[in-house]
Specification:
The chain is mostly helical. Helix content is 45%, strand content 2%. It has a two-stranded parallel sheet with strand order 1-2. β1, α3 and β2 form a beta-alpha-beta unit. The longest helix is centred in the middle third of the chain and has 23 residues. The C terminus is likely disordered.
Length: 487
């Protein structure tokens, strides 16, 4: 899914460059090796420009490129670019040392940048023309998905597991989200969401939805793949607020972009610590936690076979589409870490392997947050997945979308907890516990009065849909521990 999206994105970039009179040279391999090969083939490379990044492996790649450039006498020019809404040089506080405690809590960070006299920088205009490539350079072909899978030694695994990573039989595909890569698609989506349909005006009210494309912006998918800049989004929102309306919803989408910035700068500050089992607990304090690495239990979570419809529907969606709502991400992460007590990094790496909008900073930052080993002042924050299911999927529309066999069950409660069916009901509806439906892996206490009174469990109430939650990260670089077979 992510390979398809990235192939589409590269193809769209090539077409855009061709329209401007240039082209895109495509090669498959490690960046430092490709640069060395091009240089050895007689191409006179004066400079290499690249976006700076902050996560551990990305920084290591940057160091290798720098080394190759030095050896080849090529000028190495990294720049911050549009990685974040706020440029690192414009922050009203330092990343390290005295004053960097602003990054201890999101609210402190948000207030600091919102009160700064340096607003987000404006995006640069697209040039009208770009010089042609030097003669004699082969532009190269964009690889197919099969070619990429073969290069990664993943083709056999994919062929034997298509069933897990495809839309299940009986699911209404017209209600399932799908995404196409590329800046052109991203800009059109941005225009539709903000200007044409004005969905931004109700974003705060709809952002906790579960079904369809309209409940949230979905910008995260294009943001994570470099097809869309947070500054472009901000510029369009600012223009919309001036020309049409400014309300809580328009602000809330900017608020979500700030969460994305927060995790980027938090990673810049703490480096590889965000990938370690203890997370930032040693930095900010907190209780010692005991984690399990029960791979059988973990696999039931990953496959969507926990017995809890709300968790399992979300995992089915992730496996089939590479996407999951923000509300879903909170709940499945909480269930894995707070109900099953499984090593949070196992969940983070599983998300990393599948999410179209994967970004290491946002993904691991969010898992730290939910697992209680990040910067959240409430380290014991807990999402009761049964109650959350009733609150955010009150008519069981979402769980029955992904489990059509539950549609005819006589109550919403049973659709969310099929394991409560009586034996005669199990036979009648062919939802037999232990056969068509798994036994629950854990007992989640639930008091229906809490839902009826509107009490919330665990939500920080400010979850971004623009932030996101790769697995190809060697275990030793994450500080030790479990590493899943990802062939």
């Amino acid at each position: 899914m992510r390979a398809k999206f990235q192939i589409e994105s590269v193809a769209d970039l090539r077409q855009s460059l061709r329209r401007l009179g240039s082209d895109l040279v495509v090669r498959v391999g490690r960046p430092e090796s490709v640069i060395e090969a091009l240089s050895s083939q007689g191409l006179e490379i004066d400079s290499v420009f690249l976006h700076k990044d902050v996560a551990y492996e990305e920084v290591q790649v940057e160091a290798k490129i720098k080394k190759t450039c030095s050896e080849k006498k090529i000028e190495f020019k990294p720049f911050w670019g549009g990685l974040t809404l706020h440029h690192v040089d414009d922050l009203p506080f330092p990343i390290h040392g005295k004053g960097s405690d602003v990054l201890n809590v999101f609210t402190m960070f948000r207030k600091s940048v919102e009160n700064s006299d340096k607003p987000p920088r404006a995006p640069l205009d697209t040039p009208g023309q770009i010089p042609q490539l030097p003669s004699g350079i082969s532009c190269g072909d964009i690889p197919t998905i099969a070619e990429l899978l073969q290069l990664g030694d993943n083709l056999e695994f994919w062929e034997s597991n298509k069933g897990t990573f495809s839309i299940p039989h009986g699911v209404d595909a017209s209600k399932v989200n799908s995404f196409t890569g590329g800046e052109s698609v991203a800009l059109n989506h941005l225009d539709q969401y903000i200007w044409k349909r004005e969905l931004i005006t109700t974003y705060k009210d709809t952002r906790n939805g579960l079904v369809g494309m309209d409940y949230s912006s979905k910008f995260s998918v294009w943001l994570a793949n470099g097809c869309l800049s947070p500054r472009t989004i901000f510029a369009e929102i600012s223009k919309f607020e001036k020309q049409r309306v400014a309300n809580d919803s328009t602000y809330w989408l900017v608020f979500e972009l700030l969460w994305r910035d927060f995790f980027k700068f938090l990673t810049l500050k703490h480096g590889h610590k965000i990938f370690q089992l203890s997370g930032l607990k040693d930095v900010y304090g907190g209780k010692d936690k005991s984690w399990k690495t029960d791979t059988n239990l973990f696999q039931r979570w990953a496959d969507g076979r926990t017995g809890y419809s709300f968790v399992d529907a979300n995992m089915r969606e992730l496996n089939a589409t590479g996407f999951m709502s923000n509300r879903g991400r909170q709940n499945v992460a909480s269930f894995l870490t707070k109900d099953l007590f499984i090593d949070w990094r196992m969940g983070a790496e599983y998300f990393e392997s599948l999410l179209l909008d994967h970004d290491p900073c946002s993904n691991f930052g969010n898992w730290l947050y939910v697992a209680g080993v990040g910067t959240d002042p409430r380290e014991d924050r807990y999402f009761n997945v049964v109650k959350q299911g009733f609150m955010y999927d009150a008519k069981a529309e979402y769980v029955t979308l992904w489990f059509p066999q539950l549609k005819d069950l006589p109550s919403t409660d049973l659709k969310h907890r099929p394991f409560l069916l009586s034996v005669p009901q199990q036979e009648k509806y062919l939802v037999r516990v232990g056969q068509e439906w798994p036994h629950p892996v854990s007992h989640v206490k639930y008091n229906s009065e809490d839902t009826q009174s509107g009490k919330s469990t665990g939500s920080r109430g400010s979850q971004p849909t623009t932030k996101s939650w790769k697995v190809h990260r060697p275990n030793q670089q994450r500080g030790g521990g479990w590493s899943r077979n990802r062939k």
